[in-house]
Amino acid sequence: MEQPPGFIDQRFPSHVCRLKKALYGLKQAPRAWFQRLSNFLIQLGFSCSRADPSLFVYKKGSCLIYLLVYVEDLIITGNHSSTIRKFISHLNEEFFIKDLGHLSYFLGLEVIYIKSGLFLSQTKYTHDILVRAGLVYSKPAATPLATAESFTSDGSPFRDPTFYRSLVSALQYLTITRPDISYAVNQVSQFLQEPTTEHFQAVKRIIRYVKGTLLYGLSFHHASKHLLLGYSNADWARCIEARRSTYGYSIFLGDNLISWSAKKQPIVARSSCESEYRALANTAAEIVWITHLLRELYVLPPERPTILCDNKSAIFLTRYPVSNKRSKHIDIDYHFVRELISSGKLYTKFVPTTLQLADIFTKSLPRLLFESFRSKLHVGPPPVRLRGY
Q1: pTM, entire model
Q2: Assigned superfamily of 224-351
Q3: Which of 18, 60, 186, 277 could join 262 in a cystine, given CB atoms 3.0 to 4.6 angstroms apart?
Q4: Which of 30, 73, 38, 85 has its CA nearest to residue 57?
């Protein structure tokens, strides 16, 4: 801490002012604000979620209210309109707030209300990426990456690494509503330190694909059955240089995609069974977190979650505690998936590769297969809405 210019006491030149209140813009300000807000919400009967500290839940009888906090922006929803209005009035008495009405735009996410549910997109944000990249009038691409395309660190260095990083980081945020580009963005994100011209060409192809699907987003529909279903997959030794596998998963609640990932495994797997088994363990960990969250939201499905995998050896390894030369070196923490299955909290099942939706997160696919999996993830154009006058 340093004393501001003009306020230095000549008798105590090393002294500084003591702050009795967290000021806006200081490092302590966000923590102090969140503590102030959370204390107020807890006094009103809300409980802070353990799965997500930014989520607060209010339940009294049949009344249920959810409140999500992002710095000073709040999203409030629930099943009791009068209680929500009463809570907003209490909130307005304690803090100076501005009610923006129904959620339509939040942190770059655009919300469209449809008859069957919601449609989330980032059209304006996507257009800003096209402008930044100078590809507004470029020719669209059918897929984010060419089929079976692989990347290495060889090649001529790209002249502007900072520009490369800015585009990739922008595409990473776009994956919030565009899971179809998750694998491609993961691949180009591995070369942020020293990108080459080939890597930049791959980024331009992703943006050209996004340009052709500018209005696409993620649809959420009402469903009568809320089964928690996950798809887990791994592409063994996908990385040519490090020989590490790429794994991915997609988790559905009913027919709605609620979680997905495309990552490179941190260690080298000695077999495809091992890479698939590690992917299963990571998918199981995500499902465990989701079950904790759904339990706090009071919407946990009664049926046990299911993970679909296209590797029978990995499924066998999750059900039977066998140990041989090909599996005895696997870390113990990955074997917790066996305990979940033996205790009846999780179920694994085989799925053919042609129906493995997680394939879109582990490799670049041909156009027809890519478009088929994309539609099954409920990624597409906004639904047509006709309004009579």
Answers
A1: 0.85
A2: Ribonuclease H-like superfamily/Ribonuclease H (3.30.420.10)
A3: 186
A4: 38
